[in-house]
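Example 3.2
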Amino acid sequence: YFIDTDLTKDDNGDGDPTNDKNINNNANPQFVLGPYEEIGQKNIKVNMVDQSGNSAGQLITIDVYAPQVILSKVSFDAGTAFGSTNPSESDMPISLVRNRKGKIDVIGEYKTNDKGEFYAEGLTTKGKIYVKNARGEPVAEYDEDTGKLFIIKDGYSLVPNPSKGDMPATFDIKDSSGLTLLKAFYITDANTDTKIDDQNTQYTRKTVEYMAGAHVKDNNQKDEFEFHKIAGDDPNWFGATEIIYKNENSRIAIIDTTGYIYLLDKRMSLRLKNADNGKDPMIYELLFNGNPIGEVFISIKTPAPLNLVSKDIFGGSEIDTNKPKLPKYQKVAPYKPFADVDENNPYYAAIKDLTEKGILEGYTENGKKLFKPDAKITRAEFAKIILKMLCIVPREEAYKTPPVFSDIPFVKDLPWYYPFTKEGFIRKLIYGYGGEEDSATGLKPFKPNNNINLAEAVKIVIEALYIQNIINFERPVNPNPWYAPYIKIAQDLKPYLKIPEAVNEAFIITQNEATAPDKLLTRAEFALIAYRVLKVHSCFNVDANNNGIPDYLDDDPDKDGLINADEYKYGTNPFNPDTDGDGLKDGEEIKTYTTDPLNPDTDGDGLKDGEEIFTYKTNPKNPDTDSGGVPDGIEAIIRKSDPLNPIDDYVKQNKLLPGVYGILADCNACPCPATIEYTAQLMPGDVIYAIIANKDKTKVFSKSNEITIEQPKK
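Structure, written as tokens:
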């Protein structure tokens, strides 16, 4: 038995192209045909010759086909792939093919089992990554476990370069001529603020294991270089670290949240640390005039593949490293009645209390409210305070003619003290100077601008308490000196009080003060006397509406929604409806928006609280209302973006995810100056498929579906 496999050729030259013995099986009638290198119809002839030399033959047409290949799964974690043919064909040769960034390679040859299935096992997912020169020689190796590049060939070096424009800081592979084969760089998580580590921090494989973002170390916190976080009012650099050269008060470097390193001074440079250390991470050393002043560690998750990208993803635009000017609003100090009386003043409590009750008013000079505590009190000032202390309001008659003192006439523009001195005279609290009667009017002078001594003040106060039915005593007759009984009573009022059990402190002057009756009183000293009087008896405890708040504290003179009691509690000005000038009334800040009524910019974002509420509709208590990463003030004032839309917040021009990246040298001629070789059979991003093809793979008869290798989940 024999077969002629090619009916178009006459191999034996007998003139019959169908009787060639291409396959001679002698006496065995069973033949195995194939495998074939081509698909389609094949015509053959089976011939038979018996012992007598008689022959016969049968023409046969064979249809050669390739079954459909199905790739069911590729497992990166297990390093396996499996699939099948349809219909099921055993012993079918299958080639597993990988497309890696456009480079096509066969990574395995397999045959189907009797069920038409094929299995690929032991596919490598780790391997070496080499950077090769134009001659195909490995010059550097990349370690995915550490994210580091190592030079492995003499004549090549790893050179750091700072960030320029929107290009990250890189570490470049260069040959001896200075040609750059590869620019590698790290991108870390931009949502993590930079971290300034202690000067004793050592960046080792162990210490950086749980670090995130960009880390900066100041080598010497006592030198002339200051490392600190940039404030949120800088739109491009919030969360970044700046280095200030204190000798010149200048910004010389910025390390931002994505790991970009900008050197802003020609004296600054970079150097790589641990470049040849296979265990520890890559560190950038910051140098000033060649001397190390700090370090930068850019955190990445390992193992980290080396991702090749095009240089075109970086626009090369300039980056503004200057600080923008944003409005700064000073917090208002808690309201105090007078600029010249602070809490350290020994008379502060008395002056504050009397001012809150409306007894003291003071003077306004050059825009400041002054009490003038050390100035000698005048008789006119004294008269007004006495009346207010006793809750006496000048009657209508007190504003009219006739006058009661010769030196305080009734005129068109009455002096401020006219009604107070006349009311005091009517109530027999104050008198004019005897022996100086005006012959024309019969009136005595009051001398409103004269000062008053302790004895005079005490006599008038004691007489006022008597007239107001608070104390009772027998009027002295021609005492010597005239003030002696009043000075005595003023030191202890209890024996003279009509209701002594209701009083804790019953004196208006001390024994020591009583020794100087002729002393001219200052405004502060008389304020203290009045303060003591109110402890004996206070008309300010009246609560007409029985709400538990004295009437003088229950008023809202500035109509801001806060009664005086609340104004004093929160430190706001009871006579200014918007104490901090932010466009919101004090009551609105306390009750509605819960903002700080003493701070025009509660959240410090550069917008006044009123602007946030009424103009921009932002949250005055959240500096970044849209949580996009840029403070509201930066968006509204400087960037002119929408503070309610996080999408338009600052993002660098590149959209790279955290990881390790490389940019190969331009390939403008063959061979390319640099190439990358990955020895692992499977890598994230690879596209895998199966084929049935001829031996040299020049013809593909059947191709499966494609499966892309995903980054493994951790």
